[in-house]
Amino acid sequence: MSTDPDVLVIGGGNAALCAALMAREAGASVLLLEAAPREWRGGNSAHTRNLRCMHDAPQDVLVDAYPEEEFWQDLRKVTGGKTNEALARLVIRASSNCRDWMRRHGVHFQPPLSGALHVARTNAFFMGGGKALVNAYFRSAEALGVRVRYGSPVDRIEMDNGRFVAAHVNGERITAKACVLAAGGFESNRDWLREAWGQNPRGEWPSDNFLIRGTAFNQGVLLRHLLDDHGADRIGDPTQAHMVAIDARAPLYDGGICTRIDCVSLGVVVNRDAQRFYDEGEDFWPKRYAIWGRLVAQQPGQIGYSIIDSKAIGRFMPPVFPGVKADSLPELAQKLGLDEHSFMRTLDGYNAACRVGTFDHTSLDDCHTEGITPAKTHWARPIDTAPFYGYALKPGVTFTYLGLHTDDTAAVRFNGVPSDNLFVAGEMMAGNVLGQGYTAGVGMSIGTAFGRIAGTNAARAARVTPTGAHHAHA
């Protein structure tokens, strides 16, 4: 018979693992339930590459400085102010001092790659990527005595007046003195996405054309259960998500980072009608790449086409699949299935509007358009040098932002009252910091900060539980 743990952690990604490790380090017995089988463990964290880090001076793998205020302004800009400043700053500060702890648990960082633009200043990259990070954390957790069970999706939890009592998994009831919810968003739940996004005026169901960049296991079962059945306080809009324009040929699930198309800022993007619809040169790609999924989702058929010429080759991370290649723009239109006349009108108009100054993809340069809408404000150069390339784009959902409202203790709240033994971390609460938009690596910053807070506070709650409140295993 297994004794029920002091702390139950539900989830198997970065936030869940950080919580399990911190609770175990604080002396609590810990059981971690991962819905996925062992080979698919780690949720979306397995697809990540880096962590956005505040630092006031150069630090190991980070160059220059990235002070708190600049990080905050970057976040404020991408979220359009839809963020809780106190919690955002808590995440930012926590990002400055977590790397030594991560290293102690076997995570290795790599020196910045050349050509990674200026990301080496703001983001620390994991050696071996997110899969290596997740594997390191699981190894460390098991070595410390955290029990891990795979293929264990929790379908409901029992609550008593705002207190966690038990979780039900595969017909078994598991009690614990405290619990951390870190089971991800609802991005893999096709029905919920359809319900959230609804139908557009064209009669389309946009979400039917979404691809899921990450795990197929984030069904949002616990999130919905907490919101609908237990009346937990919610935060965020169900249509807001980390959404990227990805290769339309990507698989439905788990395509991950390699499905990204990173040449948007070096060319133009047109929709099915061969019309441009947004400023491709608005800001540096790491700050703006995550708006393009939503932009494409709003276009007819939820499809776009990134168009570049050979001047762009070598200036962006090459995609896994080669683009459609043509020796002339009319031929490219034909190969992409776009109306040649409309396509040429758009491209000719754009090319004529380019005012080329000193092109510099590493700075907000002076190459811009004049007299067309939408403008291209930086990196605007005529698309005129064969061969030409086109990449079809679809919206790729990384994770959803609807979540549980929390505070600096990571407690789940019911009618404004924080639970004293139920905590939340990761995607299930990221909407407190991310009301909209995204900037590279901040999801891992949120998961790491709140995972560690949740684990620490769950261990504390497990110690102060009154005797008699902890029921024996049925």
Automatic annotation (TrEMBL):
Residues 6-434 form the FAD-dependent oxidoreductase 2 FAD-binding domain. Keywords: FAD, Flavoprotein, Oxidoreductase. GO terms for molecular function: oxidoreductase activity. Its cofactor is FAD. InterPro entries: CobZ, FAD-dep_OxRdtase_2_FAD-bd, FAD-oxidoreductase_2, FAD/NAD-bd_sf, Succ_DH/fumarate_Rdtase_cat_sf. NCBIfam families: CobZ_N-term, PRK08274.1. This is FAD-dependent tricarballylate dehydrogenase TcuA. It comes from Hydrogenophaga aromaticivorans. The lineage of its organism: Bacteria, Pseudomonadati, Pseudomonadota, Betaproteobacteria, Burkholderiales. The gene is tcuA.
